[in-house]
Give the backbone structure.
Amino acid sequence: MRIDVRQRGPKPHHGVLTIGQLVLPCALGRNGIVVNGVEGDGATPAGTYPLRRILYRPDRRDHPDTELSCFPIGPRDGWCDAPGDAAYNRPVRLPYPASCEKLRRKDRLYDTIVILGHNDDPVTPGLGSAIFMHVAREDFRPTLGCVALSPDDLNRVLALTGRQSTITIHPPKG
Protein backbone atom coordinates (compact mmCIF):
# COMPACT_ATOMS: atom_id res chain seq x y z
CA MET A 1 0.00 0.00 0.00
CA ARG A 2 1.13 3.51 -0.77
CA ILE A 3 1.87 5.99 2.00
CA ASP A 4 1.82 9.76 1.36
CA VAL A 5 3.35 12.41 3.62
CA ARG A 6 2.81 16.16 3.31
CA GLN A 7 3.61 19.24 5.36
CA ARG A 8 0.45 20.61 6.93
CA GLY A 9 0.09 22.97 9.82
CA PRO A 10 1.47 26.22 11.20
CA LYS A 11 5.09 25.01 11.47
CA PRO A 12 7.35 23.29 8.91
CA HIS A 13 7.65 20.13 11.03
CA HIS A 14 3.87 19.58 11.17
CA GLY A 15 2.70 16.97 8.71
CA VAL A 16 0.07 14.42 7.81
CA LEU A 17 0.53 10.85 6.69
CA THR A 18 -2.14 9.24 4.53
CA ILE A 19 -2.51 5.50 3.96
CA GLY A 20 -5.76 4.24 2.51
CA GLN A 21 -8.56 6.09 4.29
CA LEU A 22 -6.39 6.97 7.31
CA VAL A 23 -5.11 10.54 7.67
CA LEU A 24 -2.73 10.75 10.63
CA PRO A 25 -0.69 13.58 12.18
CA CYS A 26 3.07 13.17 11.95
CA ALA A 27 6.21 15.05 12.88
CA LEU A 28 8.82 15.93 10.25
CA GLY A 29 12.27 17.48 10.35
CA ARG A 30 12.51 20.94 11.94
CA ASN A 31 12.98 22.49 8.48
CA GLY A 32 10.06 20.64 6.91
CA ILE A 33 10.33 18.79 3.62
CA VAL A 34 13.06 19.70 1.11
CA VAL A 35 13.92 18.52 -2.39
CA ASN A 36 17.72 18.68 -2.20
CA GLY A 37 18.56 17.67 1.34
CA VAL A 38 21.99 17.03 2.83
CA GLU A 39 23.30 15.38 5.99
CA GLY A 40 22.47 17.41 9.10
CA ASP A 41 20.06 19.90 7.46
CA GLY A 42 17.19 18.98 9.82
CA ALA A 43 14.85 18.43 6.88
CA THR A 44 12.83 15.47 5.65
CA PRO A 45 13.86 14.54 2.09
CA ALA A 46 11.16 14.61 -0.60
CA GLY A 47 10.88 11.53 -2.80
CA THR A 48 9.39 8.07 -3.07
CA TYR A 49 11.11 5.38 -1.05
CA PRO A 50 10.59 1.68 -0.42
CA LEU A 51 10.07 0.44 3.14
CA ARG A 52 13.21 -1.70 3.58
CA ARG A 53 12.63 -3.43 6.92
CA ILE A 54 11.57 -2.87 10.51
CA LEU A 55 13.75 -2.82 13.61
CA TYR A 56 12.03 -3.10 16.98
CA ARG A 57 12.70 -3.37 20.71
CA PRO A 58 11.50 -6.86 21.75
CA ASP A 59 11.93 -5.88 25.41
CA ARG A 60 9.37 -3.08 24.96
CA ARG A 61 6.93 -4.29 22.34
CA ASP A 62 5.63 -7.38 20.58
CA HIS A 63 6.73 -8.33 17.08
CA PRO A 64 5.09 -5.79 14.72
CA ASP A 65 1.98 -6.96 12.86
CA THR A 66 3.17 -6.46 9.28
CA GLU A 67 4.29 -8.31 6.16
CA LEU A 68 7.61 -6.44 6.23
CA SER A 69 10.75 -8.16 7.50
CA CYS A 70 11.31 -7.42 11.20
CA PHE A 71 14.51 -7.65 13.25
CA PRO A 72 15.14 -7.02 16.96
CA ILE A 73 17.29 -4.07 18.04
CA GLY A 74 20.19 -5.19 20.21
CA PRO A 75 22.24 -3.15 22.71
CA ARG A 76 25.14 -2.76 20.24
CA ASP A 77 23.11 -1.68 17.21
CA GLY A 78 23.87 1.71 15.65
CA TRP A 79 23.55 3.59 12.36
CA CYS A 80 26.53 5.42 10.82
CA ASP A 81 25.93 9.08 9.95
CA ALA A 82 29.55 10.05 9.12
CA PRO A 83 29.63 10.96 5.39
CA GLY A 84 33.35 10.16 5.09
CA ASP A 85 33.05 6.66 6.56
CA ALA A 86 32.73 3.48 4.48
CA ALA A 87 29.67 2.47 6.55
CA TYR A 88 27.83 5.78 5.96
CA ASN A 89 24.05 5.28 6.04
CA ARG A 90 24.46 1.67 7.10
CA PRO A 91 23.90 -0.26 10.32
CA VAL A 92 26.98 -0.69 12.52
CA ARG A 93 27.93 -2.47 15.74
CA LEU A 94 28.75 -0.24 18.71
CA PRO A 95 31.16 1.00 19.75
CA TYR A 96 32.03 2.29 16.29
CA PRO A 97 34.92 4.66 15.55
CA ALA A 98 32.93 7.10 13.35
CA SER A 99 29.86 9.19 14.19
CA CYS A 100 26.72 7.10 14.53
CA GLU A 101 23.32 6.98 16.14
CA LYS A 102 22.59 4.50 18.91
CA LEU A 103 19.42 2.59 17.98
CA ARG A 104 18.64 1.20 21.44
CA ARG A 105 17.61 4.47 23.05
CA LYS A 106 16.44 5.23 26.59
CA ASP A 107 13.43 7.14 25.29
CA ARG A 108 10.81 5.25 23.26
CA LEU A 109 11.37 6.96 19.88
CA TYR A 110 13.16 3.97 18.38
CA ASP A 111 11.01 1.22 19.90
CA THR A 112 9.87 0.70 16.30
CA ILE A 113 11.90 1.89 13.30
CA VAL A 114 10.91 1.54 9.66
CA ILE A 115 14.04 1.93 7.54
CA LEU A 116 13.21 3.95 4.44
CA GLY A 117 15.16 3.34 1.23
CA HIS A 118 16.61 6.85 1.11
CA ASN A 119 20.20 7.21 -0.17
CA ASP A 120 20.96 3.53 0.20
CA ASP A 121 21.18 2.08 -3.32
CA PRO A 122 23.75 3.41 -3.94
CA VAL A 123 24.85 5.46 -0.93
CA THR A 124 26.06 8.98 -1.78
CA PRO A 125 28.19 10.52 1.00
CA GLY A 126 26.55 13.61 2.50
CA LEU A 127 23.13 13.11 0.87
CA GLY A 128 21.53 12.10 4.17
CA SER A 129 21.39 9.09 6.44
CA ALA A 130 19.06 7.34 8.86
CA ILE A 131 15.78 8.47 7.36
CA PHE A 132 13.32 6.41 9.34
CA MET A 133 9.65 6.28 10.17
CA HIS A 134 9.55 5.97 13.97
CA VAL A 135 7.66 6.85 17.15
CA ALA A 136 6.98 10.57 17.71
CA ARG A 137 7.47 12.48 20.91
CA GLU A 138 4.17 13.07 22.74
CA ASP A 139 4.12 16.73 21.64
CA PHE A 140 5.16 15.92 18.05
CA ARG A 141 8.31 18.03 18.29
CA PRO A 142 10.46 18.01 15.12
CA THR A 143 12.65 15.08 14.14
CA LEU A 144 16.13 15.33 12.65
CA GLY A 145 14.60 14.49 9.25
CA CYS A 146 12.50 11.41 9.88
CA VAL A 147 8.74 10.89 9.77
CA ALA A 148 7.34 10.21 13.26
CA LEU A 149 3.91 8.97 14.35
CA SER A 150 2.22 8.14 17.63
CA PRO A 151 2.91 4.51 18.65
CA ASP A 152 -0.68 3.45 17.95
CA ASP A 153 -0.73 5.17 14.56
CA LEU A 154 2.62 3.64 13.59
CA ASN A 155 1.24 0.19 14.43
CA ARG A 156 -1.88 0.91 12.35
CA VAL A 157 0.28 1.91 9.38
CA LEU A 158 2.49 -1.17 9.71
CA ALA A 159 -0.53 -3.47 9.71
CA LEU A 160 -1.47 -2.05 6.29
CA THR A 161 1.98 -2.29 4.70
CA GLY A 162 3.48 -5.03 2.60
CA ARG A 163 6.71 -5.80 0.78
CA GLN A 164 5.70 -3.59 -2.16
CA SER A 165 4.70 -0.60 -0.01
CA THR A 166 6.31 2.77 -0.65
CA ILE A 167 6.28 6.12 1.10
CA THR A 168 6.08 9.31 -0.95
CA ILE A 169 7.19 12.44 0.87
CA HIS A 170 5.78 15.32 -1.17
CA PRO A 171 7.64 18.63 -1.48
CA PRO A 172 5.72 21.68 -0.29
CA LYS A 173 3.73 23.53 -2.94
CA GLY A 174 4.97 26.87 -4.05
